């Protein structure tokens, strides 16, 4: 009723409904053609949301919600994207109504939805994915049949919008999949040798524990942005600038033609839980950064460097730590995957994950210290890693014994010993350890088998290569990395996996 006696001044319920449908299908259409990439309309909006969220709020979410906090900004960004496209559709409907010019209104809505999406994603072709559904639903909305209550046409529109969103979500999933390297890149014989060495030194563990080299698809991932930068190798360059004798810029070709090394390097995130799984190891191919730094001739007052990346990430730490660092362009013999920093990332031996800048674009030598992205948010994660022994599996074996296993890591200090207690810490035994892999910054696997008798309070702890025992005192990961010994109560009956 309201619809029919309305004044053209006001937005009708029907129009609002169709605006919502246009917004939702526009986002879905964009996802279908672009996948979960930077060309998806939500991506640039999310980047703005992340940029504009004050650090104190981010720190609050990290401490109170943790990992799932990022779902909030993603959900908000989806709503903003749908709201933007919906508002554009509504504008088209109002123009159609006020000027009694349906075609003009429809074209305006479709054109604006396309244009705005193209402008913010930078991809005019894929922006059609957002523009087309907005145009179609604006057209349905201004058609004469749409404007009555309890209209089957309206119901049909809702049903088809839902169906469209469903199908588009399915297609978008397929579009999102990182192209699998169909032709495995030629793995150099040195990398092949290192992968084999890691495999041969692996302990014979029955439980589900990663090998000494993590699979690329299983290597953990921490990104400040929901959508990874896409940087073609040919477009990449990195500049060392600031307080230097001379700016030095290298292109990808120049970098990869320098002295090449293959190193085992382990990474661990300062934000992970004590027994968390943000700890992995790979064989990385790259070149030492020291010769490049020497060319630039750092002369800053504070001997500190600010590293910046294509995703606007930045982190600052002493030049001294940078001198031992490595610029990597391959991981386990494959080109660096997009999610791990393609085309070039930094690997800093023994320091927390956050210093290992992905998608590196600039190294600026500073005159005075400045906080990096995480330090602005209260973390202290640029220094050396804490010592940790993980208890990643407890497995009942056929013979009635219980197998305990995991990895231990202490950065450049190395791991000398892992000790296991099955009585809550009263007595300790040495675990079996994998032979150390060559390298300054590599984890070791450990394994311990015993015959359980009822319930056991299992505790594990490591001793680093300097003979220092992993501290017992417990603290949360925020702000300086979790400390304490991993403990777990195991019952003979329920131990598995
Ligand atoms: N450019 C950039 N580099 C980055 C990050 C990031 O968000 N952006 N995250 C850092 C953090 S907190 C960690 S723990 C490691 C994780 O590296 P990975 O995702 O390859 O495991 O990358 C570091 N380098
Ligand atoms: Mo991290």
The major pleated sheet works out as:
5 strands, mixed
Strand order of the largest sheet: 2-1-10-5-6
State the secondary-structure class. Answer: alpha+beta
Mean pLDDT: 91
Please tally the helical runs, counting DSSP H or I stretches of 4 or more residues.
Answer: 12
Ligand inventory: ligand MTE, molybdenum atom
> Can you name the CATH architecture of the largest domain?
Alpha-Beta Complex
How many discrete structural domains?
Answer: 3
Low-confidence stretches: 1-6
Count the E strands.
Answer: 19
* Strand proportion: 15-25%
How far apart are the termini?
63 Å
Under CATH, the topology of the largest domain can be stated as Sulfite Oxidase, Chain A, domain 2
The gyration radius over C-alpha positions equals 28 Å
Q: What global shape is seen?
A: globular
- The proportion of residues forming helix, as a percent range, comes to 25-40%
CATH superfamily of the largest domain: Oxidoreductase, molybdopterin-binding domain
CATH class type of the largest domain: Alpha Beta
């Amino acid at each position: 009723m309201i619809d029919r006696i309305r004044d053209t001044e006001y937005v009708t319920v029907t129009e609002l409904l169709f605006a919502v449908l246009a917004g939702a299908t526009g986002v879905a259409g964009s996802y279908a053609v672009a996948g979960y990439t930077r060309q998806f309309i939500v991506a640039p909006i999310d980047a703005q949301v992340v940029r504009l969220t004050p650090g104190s709020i981010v720190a609050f979410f990290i401490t109170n919600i943790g990992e799932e906090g990022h779902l909030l900004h993603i959900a908000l960004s989806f709503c903003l994207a749908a709201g933007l496209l919906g508002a554009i559709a509504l504008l088209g409907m109002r123009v159609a109504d006020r000027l009694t010019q349906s075609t003009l209104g429809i074209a305006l809505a479709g054109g604006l939805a396309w244009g705005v999406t193209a402008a913010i994603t930078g991809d005019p072709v894929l922006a059609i994915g957002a523009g087309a559904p907005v145009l179609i639903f604006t057209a349905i909305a201004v058609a004469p049949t749409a404007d009555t209550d309890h209209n089957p046409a309206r119901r049909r529109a809702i049903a088809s919008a839902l169906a469209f969103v469903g199908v588009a979500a399915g297609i978008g999933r397929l579009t999102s999949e990182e192209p699998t390297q169909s032709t495995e890149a030629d793995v150099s014989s040195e990398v092949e040798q290192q992968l084999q060495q890691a495999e041969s030194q692996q302990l014979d563990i029955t439980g589900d524990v990663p090998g000494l080299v993590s699979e690329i698809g299983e290597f953990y991932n921490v990104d400040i942005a929901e959508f990874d930068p896409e940087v073609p190798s040919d477009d990449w360059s990195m500049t060392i600038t600031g307080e230097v004798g001379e700016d030095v810029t290298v292109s990808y070709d120049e970098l990869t033609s320098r002295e090449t090394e293959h190193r085992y390097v382990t990474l661990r995130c300062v934000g992970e839980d004590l027994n968390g799984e943000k700890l992995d190891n790979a064989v990385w191919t790259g070149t030492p950064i020291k010769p490049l730094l020497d060319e630039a001739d750092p002369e800053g007052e504070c001997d500190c460097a600010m590293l910046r990346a294509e995703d606007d990430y930045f982190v600052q730490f002493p030049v001294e730590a940078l001198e031992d660092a490595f610029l990597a362009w391959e991981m386990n013999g494959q080109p660096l995957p997009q999610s791990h920093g393609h085309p070039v990332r930094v690997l800093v031996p023994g320091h927390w994950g956050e210093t290992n800048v992905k998608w590196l674009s600039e190294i600026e030598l500073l005159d005075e210290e400045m906080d990096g992205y995480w330090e602005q948010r209260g973390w202290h994660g640029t220094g050396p890693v804490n010592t940790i022994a993980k208890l990643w599996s407890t497995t009942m074996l056929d013979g009635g014994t219980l197998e305990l296993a995991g990895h231990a890591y202490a950065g450049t200090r190395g791991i000398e010993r892992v000790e296991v207690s099955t009585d809550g810490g009263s007595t300790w035994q040495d675990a079996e350890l994998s032979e150390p892999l060559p390298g300054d910054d590599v984890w070791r696997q450990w394994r311990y088998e015993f015959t359980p008798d009822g319930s056991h309070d299992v505790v594990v702890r490591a001793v680093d290569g300097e003979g220092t025992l992993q501290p017992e005192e417990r603290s949360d990961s925020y702000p300086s990395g979790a400390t304490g010994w991993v403990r777990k109560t195991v019952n003979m009956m329920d131990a598995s996996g």
